[in-house]
Amino acid sequence: MAVKTACKSCQKRQSAKERILDIAFSFFKTPLYEQVSLNDIAKKAGISKAAIFRHFKNRADLVLAMQDRFFSDVTDYIISIKQDLTAAIWSKDISLYRIVLRNTVKTYFEYPEYLFYMLSHSAVSIKDYREQTLLLSKKLEEKGLSLKMLGGMFGVNYSPENFSVFNLKNYAAISYAFISVAYFLILSLSGQKKSSASDQAESGCLEKYVLQEPAFDSETIADLLDFGIYSPQRYLSYERMKELDEKAHIDLSKIPPANKIFCALSQVIDKYGFPGVTVKRLADTLNMAKSSLYSYFDSKKTLIHKLLTEEIYLMISSLDKVCGEITDSTELAYVFFRALTEYFLARQDILTVFRWTRMSGSIIPEQYEHEDFSLQNFKLSADVDETEQLDKLPFKMTRRIFFTWISVVSSSIVMRKNIHNLSDENCYEIVKLCFDFMQRGLTSDTN
Predict the structure, then answer these.
(1) Within its chain, how far is the Cα of 199 from the centroid?
(2) Which UniProt keyword terms apply here (predicted)?
């Protein structure tokens, strides 16, 4: 699982109890933001539901066992990379960083269930984050390590009452790498095919939410993170990014409040986590009868898509106002990143839902598409084709994928704002750092 081999705790377990846990985790080999049904676990394991209760008292007991295994295996992985990562930090040896980076990416691709379990159960409140941090701390202490050591690597203070960031660059690098791997792994697993030219002409959309061949693998993603996407002549300097910040400003006074159902949905996710979203909980939050919601929407999925489409359309319209006059494609990407982060900071009540649907690979259904609801409407320079040829990559990336990648990183930055006590200015500084990682790579001499 790390520099030399997979951690032994991730290898196949033999007992019946461990086998049930294996099956439960197998549902997370693709993005999953709902509770796993005990009936589905039993069916996949070839046993009865009652047999599960011979090993676990109830669902809650199974959930705790999954949590315990997850943190145990994460601890084993941290131990396996500790020596190389510590040496890289102190010696500034890029080759050691590269080893850790590439083996970490490889691990995520070999064990996607751990990545998607982490995303599905990621803390969305300070309370959840504190509980998860204490669990990890306990596991580390059992293996003779400390959370303080881990915090030193990640640039975060880890104590029961303080999760503030003391090293923005380290924090930004870890956050950027993790969320980028998650995003591209989801695309890789989606198995979507590029639509035919006739389909594109019929829909009037020149860009699709897919990559052209070749498909992603761990080496491709490692290259993307390692070396960046642009050649040196296209790099934006820190000074130029600061100059562009003024152009990236959104007039938030002209944006209406978010839909109350959307805000309630965000509250449900904040309270119960991604797997805990139910129509009943949404109705209770709104002080409405469950049947009242179904009188407007035939399913939870339809409800979410409808509300999300309206919010994203408003967001895209706002972004287009600030991005429409930018002619340089590299500057456009930065301005989009900066402006989107400003939008998210102003409307954090919609951010949880946005991240949930984006990270689950959700696509807006055709019946909700607006004619001009597309990132392709940004006025890019004439020499940029429908697919952006990124200098350092062996493939072409559609603008839809490229800008969605930026949006996922942006949303992740703002999602952690309150947990890590970040100011708005901290978030904007992290945007600059992450954009520099995008263009130059994580192991660039300048980084």
Answers:
(1) 30
(2) DNA-binding
Q: Which residue has the higher pLDDT, 112 or 295?
A: 112
Phi, psi at 53, each rounded to 5°: -75, -5
Go through the domains of the chain in sequence order and give each one's CATH number. 11-122 (1.10.357.10), 168-440 (1.10.357.10)
pLDDT at 356: 61
Residue in the block written with tokens 């640039």 = 155
SS3 143: coil
What does the H/E/C string look like for 357-415? HHHCCCCCCHHHCCCCCCHHHCCCCCCCCCEECCCCCCCCEEHHHHHHHHHHHHHHHHH
d(CA 429, CA 431): 5
Which amino acid belongs to residue 409?
A: V
Token pair, residue 440, equals 């130059």
Residues 395 and 220: their CA atoms lie apart, in Å, by 9
For residues 130 and 414, what is the distance between their CA atoms, to the nearest angstrom?
A: 18
Q: How many CB atoms lie within 10 A of CB 13?
A: 14
What is the phi/psi pair of residue 162, to 5°?
-140, 110
Contact between residue 415 and residue 343 where contact means Cβ atoms under 8 Å apart: no
Query: Which residues neighbour 193 within 8 Å (Cβ) at sequence distance 6 or greater?
Result: 210
d(CA 324, CA 266): 30
Number of H helices, E strands in the chain: 20, 2
Cβ distance 8 to 76 under 8 Å? yes
Query: Read out DSSP for 77-92?
Result: HHHHHHHHHHHHHHH-
**What span, in angstroms and rounded, lies between the C-alpha atoms of 121 and 356?**
11
Q: What is the DSSP letter of 255?
A: S
Q: Return the DSSP state at 93.
A: -
Q: Which residues contact 421 (CB under 8 A, 6 or more apart)?
A: 163, 164, 165
pLDDT tens digits, 295-346: 767 776 677 777 777 887 888 888 888 888 888 888 999 999 999 999 999 9
Cα–Cα distance for residue pair 113/127, rounded to 1 Å: 24
Asked if 120 and 32 count as a contact pair (C-beta separation under 8 A), the reply is yes
Instruction: Supply the pLDDT for residue 274.
Output: 65
Q: How far is CA 46 from CA 23, 52, 58, 62, 152, in A?
A: 10, 11, 19, 17, 45
